[in-house]
Design a protein that fits this description.
This protein is of the alpha+beta class. It has 18 helices and 16 strands. Helix 1 runs antiparallel to helix 7 and helix 8 packs antiparallel against helix 13.
Length: 456
């Protein structure tokens, strides 16, 4: 007996119902992207390794899927190098390409490569799959879609304000209430490191701080000590772990902590600008919260940092995130190109909507009506009607085989098709149709116009 085929861990097959629901989310996000003036682009599923490597920090580099070179990929590896069995040295020799880890770095590459064709500021959106060699768990997959929106070519803080509004607009359109948009600023984090005299350990500091919700305060402090940050330094930064209150109260606390840091003060000014603007234009369903421990371990954020938390009733990680990356294109040689972007986690948003029962009936795109097949003459009569129904945007089909009535009706039931049409010799003669509502069981003889009105 042949072994049953499987798929790799961290990947999934999607049923017709699941694809319809995913498309509902994508279409909702895409509509809001367009409302906000973003234009679509697409980039290849894999990039040259040197485009991706070194852009996500050491932790990110380990999660990049490498693609083996075509042909005899070991031919270029010298015997002495092979004998060392050092994967870091061998990998560049046998793999020159890799699956994209996110959509932001490929976008930066796109901007640099096409800079003479782009009108700046350039607002783009991109909805494509990405791959990460991560450990699969609930809400975390090795292949998943990202839905990104970015603006490059503007340093205006109005872009940050717009992205907060964009998040709110999307989740409002999805009827998802209780979402929290967390915001911080990389300059705040730099200010913390400056105040404690550990500016040279900024990355170690922020990577540890970003794990607060996972490993707790003591875990964060332990990791910082292991990275060489002194006990005295940790004592100076102790107040950040106890910052409480609303946005304004946290800002007040920050001003006290960062009173001796010019960089930190700039971060506070930027956060205050965003908060004042949002106060004048209140959000519809989302909440805006200042989280001074939010770091998002990626190296390229330079200003605002965003992370979106699902409603507290759902035990799931972030469903979106992003930030400002003023020097991202600089890694590809294009200096002074400011940018900011956010991402929506499609798969996690799906899980949230499913758990909360927020998918509308219309999300399950399905055949609305199926015609019973009584034979060649009747099938032709049905097909003519089906063609006209499709012209009126009604999803219609004919059961392909002249099978027993019970089999055809069971097929309609299993596929949850709401209407079945019987068109035999009697209906052909009278130029009518027998329409059966599969939910109520009601059955009526109707002409074509009545047929359309009852289905719609």
């Amino acid at each position: 007996m042949a072994q049953k085929p499987t798929i790799p861990k961290g990947t999934r097959d999607f049923s017709p119902a699941e694809v319809s629901k995913r498309n509902y989310i994508i279409d909702t996000i895409k509509k809001q992207f367009q409302h906000f003036g973003f234009q679509p682009i697409e980039t290849p599923s894999f990039e040259n390794s040197n485009t991706l490597m070194g852009k996500y920090g050491e932790e990110g580099d380990r999660l990049i899927f490498k693609i083996l070179n075509s042909g005899d990929f070991l031919k270029k590896v010298k015997d002495e190098l092979y004998e060392e069995k050092d994967s870091k040295k061998i990998t560049p020799k046998i793999s020159e390409k890799a699956l994209r880890y996110d959509l932001t770095v490929p976008f930066a590459r796109y901007v640099v490569q096409h800079q003479n064709e782009i009108e700046f500021p350039f607002k783009r959106y991109q909805i494509q799959p990405v791959w990460r060699a991560d450990r699969p768990q609930k809400g975390r997959f090795r292949e998943f879609y990202q839905c990104d929106a970015d603006v490059v070519g503007s340093k205006s803080l109005w872009q940050e304000v717009e992205f907060v509004q964009l998040y709110d607009a999307v989740f409002s359109a999805l009827s998802l209430k209780g979402v929290t948009i967390k915001i911080n600023n990389r300059k705040i984090l730099s200010g913390f490191a400056e105040v404690i005299g550990e500016s040279d350990k900024l990355i170690d500091f922020t990577v540890a701080l970003d794990k607060l919700d996972k490993i707790g305060e003591e875990g964060v402090k332990k990791e910082m000590l292991e990275k060489g940050i002194s006990t005295e330094a940790l004592q100076k930064i102790e107040p950040i772990f106890s910052l409480r209150g609303d946005f304004a109260e946290k800002i007040s606390g920050l001003k006290e902590i960062l009173s001796n840091s010019d960089e930190g003060k700039k971060g506070i000014e930027e956060l205050e600008f965003i908060q004042r603007a949002i106060k004048e234009m209140p959000l519809q369903t989302a909440n805006l919260d200042l989280d001074v421990t939010l770091a998002r371990g990626l190296n390229y954020y330079t200003g605002a940092i965003f992370e979106v938390a699902a409603p507290s009733t759902v035990k799931l990680g972030s469903i979106g995130g992003g930030g400002r990356y003023d020097d991202l294109t600089g890694i590809f040689g294009l200096k002074n190109m400011s940018g900011i972007g956010i991402s929506f986690g499609l798969d996690r948003i799906y899980l949230v909507l499913e758990e909360l029962g927020l998918f509308p009936d219309s999300a399950a795109v399905n055949t609305q009506v199926i015609f019973i097949n009584f034979g060649e003459k009747e099938a032709l009569y049905a097909m003519k009607a089906i063609r006209k129904l499709r012209e009126k945007n009604i999803n219609a089909e004919l059961y392909p085989d002249e099978a027993k009535m019970k089999k055809q009706m069971n097929h309609a039931n299993k596929r949850e098709i709401p209407f079945v049409i019987l068109a035999g010799s009697k209906e052909i003669e009278s130029e009518k149709f027998t329409l059966k509502n599969m939910k109520s069981g009601e059955q009526n003889s109707v002409d074509f116009e009545e047929l359309v009105s009852q289905i719609l």
